[in-house]
Specification:
alpha/beta; Aspartate Aminotransferase, domain 1; Aspartate Aminotransferase, domain 2; 2 domains; seven-stranded mixed sheet; four-stranded antiparallel sheet; 15 helices; binds pyridoxal-5'-phosphate
């Protein structure tokens, strides 16, 4: 298979990622664990150093030069995120630690205020634990119920079953945009419209989609969209939650403390305007600032161009891996991001991962924080290869050769 129309120079991209140029167990590192976290380009690493060397100050209230500079840079990232998601206003962008915190925020604020006994929350079988457990906590507190959309044999949502689950009791539908365990891209625009038709809100977990797909929250018409910086080439510990302004305005705050207030007295406290109402305390300033460098890095190549390249990697690797006897790919949806989960007859995924590591190849094995999905498939876990924009066809060949050798040893 020949790769076509690659809009950027992969070797040049690789030069931007210092961590890739090292040996692991004496072999050149092949990093195929991007769905867990991506590596960081120099521009992001340097932004962190520059911040601490030249800018560090607490934001929003300082009267001095550094405080103003740090505040400006922090708010520039909010604008970069708004642009990345095509949200209407920066008031709709809340800094969080990542998807996990974002979903807990929605469940604790919107959820607590709007979900009552007997109400229903719809999730799907392929959700990440971070899009299950916060809703279970809410459901247990309120006496609400969780309903689950099943999958077909390709790992796609059964949309007729989703339609049947929707009712006036449905208050929240929360669905992963692209699955970290299967790669499946879900039709969230259509799903949001279906949720709205019964008066429910729609939450999207964009942890995987954010790095692989062009996004437009206005077009998708999601009520909330969450993503984590560290999967989009930004640092750990920073992420963003988009929420429609009218919903955010009506929601109670999440954490209480400094920054989220307008006036405080022991009798009565009023809250700050959006988005600060949801940002109590000193935030993760440095990582938020470097987040912008990551988003600008991605945008400089064009997300559609990156997606096109990653799709070719996905197709090529899928073809090569299907030639390995006894290997089965888990997740064969028509629309996929560049994630390949697989199992091999007679081999434990952990053993495959450990042996590939001895060849310098980093993959992930296990349940991928999707235990209900694994249970529904009747397996304990998979081995998973996931690509980023800096991965190459040569690396796929190296991994396939190592896999063939590994399987001979294991079987
Ligand atoms: C990684 C991931 C999460 C959790 O993200 P955190 O950054 O750990 O909060 C949630 N959903 C999906 C699909 C993921 O891939």
């Amino acid at each position: 298979m020949q790769f076509t129309d690659i809009a950027f120079d992969i070797e040049k991209v690789r030069q931007d990622f210092p961590i890739l140029h090292q040996k692991v167990h004496g072999k050149p590192l092949v990093y195929f664990d991007n769905a867990a976290t991506s590596q960081k380009p120099k521009t992001v690493i340097e932004a962190l150093t520059t911040y601490y060397e030249a800018t560090n100050a607490n934001i929003h209230r300082g009267a001095h030069y550094l405080a103003a500079k740090a505040t400006e840079e922090y708010e520039q990232t909010r604008e970069a995120i708004r642009d990345f998601l095509n949200a209407q206003s920066t008031q709709e962008i809340i800094f969080v630690r990542g998807v996990t915190e974002a979903i807990n925020l929605i469940a604790s604020t919107y959820g607590r205020a709007n979900v009552q006994a007997g109400d229903e929350i719809i999730l799907s079988t392929m959700e990440h634990h971070s899009n299950i457990v916060p809703w279970q906590l809410l459901a247990a507190e309120k006496g609400a119920h969780i309903r689950v959309i099943p999958l077909n044999e390709h790992g796609e949502l059964q949309m007729e079953e989703y339609q049947k689950l929707l009712s006036p009791r449905t208050k929240i539908v929360s669905i992963v945009h692209a699955s970290n365990a299967l790669g499946t891209i879900n039709p969230i625009k259509e799903m949001a419209a279906m949720a709205h038709a019964v008066g429910a809100i729609f939450v999207a977990d964009g942890a995987q989609a954010s790095v692989h797909l062009p996004l437009d929250v206005q077009d998708l018409d999601c009520d909330f969209y969450a993503f984590s910086g560290h999967k989009v080439y930004a640092p750990t510990g920073i992420g963003a939650l988009y929420g429609k302004k009218a919903l955010l305005e009506a929601m109670p705050p999440y954490h209480g403390g400094g920054e989220m207030i307008k006036d405080v007295s022991f009798e009565h406290t009023t809250y700050n305007e959006l988005p600060f109402k949801f940002e109590a305390g000193t935030p993760n300033i440095a990582d938020a600032i470097a987040f912008r460098n990551a988003l600008e890095y991605v945008s400089s190549f064009g997300k559609a161009n990156i997606a096109h390249y990653e799709h070719q990697l996905l197709q090529y690797a899928t073809e090569q891996m299907l030639q390995i006897e006894g290997l089965r790919i888990v997740g064969t949806a028509a629309q996929k991001v560049s994630v390949i989960s697989f199992v091999v007859d007679g081999c434990h995924p952990n053993d495959i991962g450990t042996l590939l590591d001895t060849d310098g190849i980093a993959i992930r094995t296990g349940h991928h924080c999707t235990q209900p999905l694994m249970d529904s498939l009747g397996i304990s876990g998979t081995a998973r290869i996931s690509f980023a924009m800096y991965n190459t066809k040569d690396e796929v060949d190296i991994a396939v050769r190592s896999l063939q050798k590994t399987l001979k040893m294991l079987r």
